[in-house]
Write a structure and sequence with these properties.
The structure is a single chain. Helix content is 37%, strand content 19%. The protein has seven helices and six strands. The protein is globular. By secondary structure, the chain is of the alpha/beta class. It has a single domain, classed as Rossmann fold (3-Layer(aba) Sandwich), CATH 3.40.50. A six-stranded parallel beta sheet has the order 3-2-1-4-5-6, with helices on both faces.
Length: 187
Amino acid sequence: MKIAVFGGSFDPIHIGHIHAVVEAKIKMDFDKIIFIPVKQSPLKTLKPIEDEHRINMLEMITREYDFMALDKYEIDHERASYTYDTARYLKTEYPNDALYFLMGWDQYLNFDRWYKKDELLELMHFVVLDRIGEGPHIQEPFIQLNQPVVEVSSTVIRSRIMNNDPVRHQLDAGVFKYIKEHGLYES
C-alpha cells in the first residue's frame, strides 16, 4: 500500500487540511492517509488546546472518508514530537508499505533543522504540497506536488473566534458545531 502521513497540531482541523489531503490522495494515488496530531511541536512554543478536543475533531473528519485514519502515537507520548521517532514507529506498523510524509513548503524550507533528517529520508518519502507555481523549486529526493490551495489558517480561525468573527466557512460543519458546543478558542 501507499500510505501518506499528515502531521500537525490540527488546532483546529479546517477545510484547508481536508482539501490538501484529498487532492494529494487523488494525485498520488494513496491508499490511506493517516493524520498524526502532535503533542507539542519541537519547533513551536505555543501549546495547542487539550488533546481530547483535537482528537475528537479529527475523529469526526476521519470517519467521513474511508481512506483516512487517525493515529495517536505522538499524542500518547508526554514529550515533544520528532518525525524521526514517528517514522520509526510507522515502519514497524506498516513494514511492507511505502510511507510518504505530506508537508508544506514552509516545512521543506526548514527541513535542515529537523531531528535526524538524513535518517528520515531513508525511512519515508517526502511530498511537498505546493501552490501551483508559487513555492520554491523543490530538490530531490523531495517530491513536489502542485495543487490548488484553500487558504485557511488555524491561527486565524482561533483569532476570529476570540473576536467573535465568522469562521463557519472555514470549518467542516461537525467541527464548527463541536467548537461552539465546547466554547473552544473563546477568550
